[in-house]
Amino acid sequence: MSAPLEVRIEHDQVSALRSHILSFYSATSGDVRESSERWLTTFTRTQDSWHAALSILELEDASEAESVFCARTIHVLLRRCVAKEARTQASHAVFSDDEWHTLRKRIFSLTRAYSIKAIRTKSQHARTTLTQLALATSALACKMPSWEPMDIVSTLLFTFQNDSSTPTDSKLLCLCALLALLAQEANCRDLSIHPARRECVLDGLKAASSDVMIVLEQLAQSCQNDASLISYILEALASWAEFSNITQAFPSVIVDGAVQIVCSSEGDGQHSSTLKQRAANATRTSLSQCIWYRSENLRGL
Question: What's the predicted TM-score (pTM) here?
């Protein structure tokens, strides 16, 4: 018995997508690369491109190029999707309630999987894919109509903190990435979102900011000087401090560490210039709240 038509179509789309990704990144002919680029640009703008992209990400043998490309495709698609019953513009994507929940479940699963892969293989491509999946999760949280804004942070923390199947170091990486990028995505002008929904999301994030600061402090105490985790934590602190009063549960341990990074010697090679810049941004953004909130906790630093 032959496979259902929908399954055969998705299989053909996956095969075509993999072929064009390979050609785009490895073909020696400029004409072949340009042809594949045109095909990829057209395909990733289609309503159902997420099916093929997620299917490739779920493959055991997905290449590094495929993983990064498909995770980025999902993120971009979620940024431009709209919460409408029907598609009214070619640039839009529209999801049913079932599709929203399917997307969330599969993206959560992939975020866990790539955090484990990034730790196990120490692959920069796996970390890049994880970053794109964390951005996709953040965009989905902002846009999914049935995801209550006040529940966004609690759902993410519960999902990724209480997963017994994921090793602790992978959980740390996962949470650091999500908390760093969620606040950034909610404020990003490239995120196509109704102003009222964005305001509700930001209100939900503000309401959860004290819980986030507590988690960030716990993560900072557990990261064991891992530069990439420290970088995510510093990004998160800066992002949340930009729009929320974080002084009620201010993670002074993070700012103490950030100041040490900023003040470290240029010649010791211990911290990259990128990490030092992020530490400076986190320190500046956080300590500016001394002026706005007159926090004794902050002044004590």
Answer: 0.82
Interval 167-224: pLDDT, tens: 998 998 999 899 989 999 999 999 989 999 999 999 999 999 888 888 888 888 887 7
Residues 90 and 45: beta-carbon distance below 8 Å: yes
CA–CA dist 53, 107 (Å, integer): 11
pLDDT in tens, 69-113: 999 999 999 998 876 555 455 555 788 889 999 999 999 999 999
Q: Which two tokens stand for residue 179?
A: 């908390």
Count the Cβ atoms, other than its own, within 10 Å of residue 59.
13
Query: Exposed, middle or buried by CB within 10 Å (0-12, 13-18, 19+), for 45?
Result: middle
DSSP string, 101-145: HHHHHHHHHHHHHHHHHHHHH--HHHHHHHHHHHHHHHHHHHH-T
Dihedral sign for Cα 123, 127, 128, 132, please.
positive
- Contact by Cβ (8 Å): 14, 26: no
